[in-house]
Every structure is written in structure tokens, then in C-alpha cells.
Design a protein that fits this description.
The protein is built from three helices and eight strands, in the order βαβββαββββα. With about 130 residues, the chain is α+β, with helices and mostly antiparallel strands. It has one domain. α1 crosses α2. The longest helix has 14 residues.
């Protein structure tokens, strides 16, 4: 069965738009103008975001990984970025940018990175062709 992995990188402004829209749909109705800075980082093995106020209010609001994924999926839908519905979805950070990783029949190993390039060749060679076992 073919596998598909897709990595979609979001810059800070796209994350901001997605999070602001997501928070606007929540019951607490946070005003997008009140959001000053969004810090995305890993905590306990998952990607989370802290939202800081632009109005010099102490403290922050934490958004967990599942809410971030929901916000990014919504952003993709509005911007007509096609995503498979039956794919696995997870978040990663790469060079300071938020990355949505989707996979259909994802492979069980990570790709090898050599000379700043991703290589799937070793994995592909080990897989039997259809009809072979």
C-alpha cells in the first residue's frame, strides 16, 4: 500500500491568523486585537502555544496540540489547501516554524537526512513490490 507523508510549514503570521480565528470560535471569545505574541514550543513531547496579550496583561493562555491542529486544519480549509480526511495528523517544529505533518498509511520509520536532504531510498528498497512477499 502506498504511503504519503505531507509536511506543511506555517509562518508566524499564518499561525497567528489560525489561532485568532480558532479562539474567536471558542466560548471565551478572545479579541484578536488583544493578542500580542504567540510562542510555539514543545512541552512534554508535544507542540503547544502560549498566547500573550498586547495590552500588558500579565500571564498567558496555553493552547494544546490538539487545538493547534484544529486551528491549522481550519486555516487549510479556508485557504483551499487540500488535506486527506483519513490521515494521521501531528505537529512538529522545524527551524522555528510550526509544521503540520499528515500521513496516509504512514511508514513506521523516519526518513534519513543527509547533506541537508531527506532520503527515503533505504526504506523504499526494503519494501516488497506488489505481489511479492
Amino acid at each position: 500500500m502506498p504511503s504519503e507523508l505531507r509536511y506543511i510549514m506555517f509562518d508566524s503570521e499564518e499561525v497567528r491568523i489560525a489561532v485568532c480565528r480558532f479562539l474567536a470560535t471558542k466560548s471565551n471569545r478572545i479579541d484578536a486585537k488583544a493578542i500580542g505574541r504567540i510562542a510555539v514550543f514543545t512541552s512534554g513531547g508535544e507542540v503547544v502555544a502560549d498566547i500573550y496579550s498586547s495590552r500588558n496583561v500579565a500571564g498567558s493562555l496555553r493552547i494544546d496540540s490538539s487545538d493547534l491542529i484544529q486551528a491549522l486544519l481550519w486555516f487549510c480549509r479556508l485557504n483551499r489547501i487540500p488535506l486527506p480526511q483519513l490521515s494521521t495528523k501531528r505537529l512538529e517544529l522545524s527551524e522555528g516554524q510550526l509544521v503540520l505533518v499528515t500521513g496516509v498509511n504512514p511508514i513506521s520509520t523516519e526518513p534519513r537526512i543527509a547533506n541537508d536532504r531527506i532520503s527515503y531510498a533505504e526504506w523504499a528498497v526494503k519494501q516488497p513490490l506488489p505481489g511479492q512477499a
